[in-house]
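Many introductory courses stop at the sequence. We go one step further.
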Amino acid sequence: MNNDVLALKYRPKFFDEVVGQDFVVKTLSNSITLEKIHNSYLFSGTRGVGKTTIARIFAKSLLCEKGILVKPCGECSSCTQIDNGTHLDLIEIDAASRTKVEDTQTLMENVQYSPTSSRFKVYLIDEVHMLSNKSFNALLKTIEEPPAHVKFLLATTEPEKLPETVLSRCLHFKLSTVDVGTIESHIKKILEKEGIKSDNESINLISATAKGSIRDGLSLLEQCVAYCENELDGEKIKFLLGEIDDQIIKDLIINIISKNPDKLVQTIQKIKENINFEKVIDLIINIFYKITLFKIKSDFIENDSSHKNFIEEQAKLIDEKELQLFYQIAISSKKDFKFSENKKDYLTMILLRMVFFSNSFRNNAQEDPEETITDNKVEVEESLMNQASNSSEKEETNGFLEMNDKGTKNKKEEKLLWEDLLMKLDISGLSLNLAKNSLLTNIQKDSAILKIPTKKKNIYPKSCVSDLIAKINKYFNRELSINIEYEENLLSPEIKEVKKQENDAIKALEAAESDTSIDSIKKYFDAEIDKNSIKKINN
């Protein structure tokens, strides 16, 4: 074992040395004290939080020559052999490399044999979720009723992949991620023992980057110590870890909330290329989250003194709906970072999307959303009036009729206008489905007709129809008397879209069949085109 590696040198050997898992340690210690030892234990949690380490310490407590103790002696042959990884009765298995059922069957055949020198034979199976279903079946019976001298200690990062039958037969300990403060305290102690100079900024950066993993924290610490030549420096570590200046994050937030795309792009250009741009999004997400909590109740971020004043200032300038929009854009965009060749450009597009998608973005200035809605209503009604005045004769159609009896609109234009109106109504779910399958016609000053396909007569509940009518009246800010009529072969927006897709498919098939390259492929492979598989590719 290489004791120069910090993660190994400072690996806990006793329960009182374990960091950040007090609940698990206390429960295991009490079970030893009360002599309540179970057949099988399962330790789960993210990487580097102590699953295998705690399992080894527990095995040492069970196998110590001086008895089953909460704190084993650490000096007997059993304890020293476990520390060195050479104890014959502690069988450690990496399930990731032994997934075959034959391996598990061979293992189970040896379970019946007594320990060589200890009171128990302990099987420690790491990454147990990697076993195949057949391997789990082979293991199941033995885990349920093992011989008295056998104990199973299982460790996994993905407990959800284990069969319920295995989970139900184990005492399951879920190890939590370690908080930043605990990792900081642990790193400070190690630096003191190693005689390495440091500052609080360095320790905080390393602890935060570890993301709850003690092992990752120590690995990062070792990397930083080597880079800084045994004297940790905050600026050097920022560069090494790709950390971004806190002020830049604040400037990004300010420019997003103020809807200033010019300054937003200028701020992004200041970010160095070695920065982890995905982490920039994470920091922005965190700020939006805290602003949202502050708007609900300021006490929710009382302990966050570093950002509280900034959050309080920005909370006054943005409403809850925009916060939700920005948060959702940031979260949804993260998954596509890996597909982007230029991470900086992609970050720019994400943040600009927040600005441009905002309802209040109008020429770098805020507008009243209510005023915008009113303008949309006026546009619809003016369109109705203008189209009516340009028509020379009055006829009933499957679209809108003008509202002052002066004439009618073109039939095609009426359908488009109903579709445009659907986009402006605040409807969703079944009401939206009804609207797409219907047509609002014959609009007069105080009445209109809502036509629904005959075949859908009994599909929509009355509450759904009432909701759509209420939304239409709310939009036009008037009480229209809307009568319901049922009509065969109604050319609704939904039917129109289906026909358009069918026509597009026919055109795509014709284009494919006339393509000489595809024709050559058909002849070479003696193949035919499956028209149902032709789909439009969205760029």
